[in-house]
Amino acid sequence: MTGSLLIAGLGPGADAQVTPEVSAALARATDVVGYIPYVNRVAVRPGLTLHPSDNRVEIDRSRHALEMASAGHHVVVVSSGDPGVFAMASAVFEAVEAGPDHWRDLDISVLPGITAMLAAAARAGAPLGHDFCAINLSDNLKPWDLIEKRLRLAAEADFAMAFYNPRSKSRPEGFAKTLLILQEACGDARPVVFARAVSTPEETLNVVPLTECTPEMADMRTMVLVGSSSTRVISRSGAPIVYTPRSVPT
Predict the structure, then answer these.
(1) Cα 128 to Cα 44: distance, rounded to the nearest angstrom
(2) 112: how many CB neighbours lie within 10 A of its CB?
């Protein structure tokens, strides 16, 4: 009995932003595995078993999915956004590399999704229109010293930046440090986009100069996009348009 394992991105939140490829995979699945809020987005139907689990058991979740696929199940591991961006695809492949040899011969595919970063950027305009980088500000899986080093180098290189997981209730000080580093390194009022719960009914979007940003403006449902020195703001009667030109003056 031959099973399969698909690692799928559910997009930022709205059903309309789930790709047809991912919807078709969920319709064929026998089992769906993932973090509780993401599994809760999958409709219950006959023949489908849901396997929700806590956020800090990524490798255990991956092993469980691989074991079921080895037993002939058609398993979909779900993430929000895109599964290859700070999400489950890496965890599954880490489990494959460390696991039994027969896991390497399984039918495994990654199905991309719309990332929170790209959904937030689209709402704001085009703040990532030129070179940019994405940084996960959580220090759960890497030391803060490394995060700080990458922030300073990104600022020195004048990248636009996208921040995932900016401010948790248990570690609110990380984003406060981030703002201080950027305000010191950049020294200007470049625009910062705070995009919370994009594509859901709770969506909010605020554009604030870097010099006026405060830690309380972000939480774990917020994508923070920091412009480069060339990022522009077009004022208008509604929400402003934030964009980074595709060319840099010489």
Answers:
(1) 37
(2) 18
Are the beta carbons of 217 and 226 closer than 8 angstroms? no
Of the candidates 127, 128, 88, 137, which has an alpha carbon nearest to the alpha carbon of residue 109? 88
Position 2 scores a pLDDT of: 82
Helix intervals (H) in the chain: 20-28, 36-39, 58-70, 88-98, 116-124, 144-156, 173-186
Mean of per-residue pLDDT scores for the chain: 95
* The pLDDT of residue 126: 98
Give the pairing of strands 125-126 and 241-243: parallel
Q: Looking at the predicted structure, is the pLDDT value of residue 249 above 80?
A: no
pTM for this predicted structure: 0.92
State phi, psi for 195 to the nearest 5 degrees.
-115, 110
How far apart CA 154 and CA 103 sit, in angstroms, is 38
pLDDT of residue 1: 65
Query: In which band, very low, low, confident or very high, does the pLDDT at 172 lie, cut at 50, 70 and 90?
Result: confident
Burial of residue 114 (CB within 10 Å: 0-12, 13-18, 19+) is buried
| Pair of tokens at residue 110 | 């990654």
**Percentage with pLDDT > 70 across the chain:** 100
Are 37 and 107 a contacting pair, CB within 8 Å?
Answer: no
Give the 3-state secondary structure of 26-67.
HHHCCEEEEEHHHHCCCCCCCCCEEEEECCCCHHHHHHHHHH
Helix (H, G, I), strand (E, B), or coil: what is residue 178? helix
Residue 144 CA neighbour count, 13 Å, CB half:
10
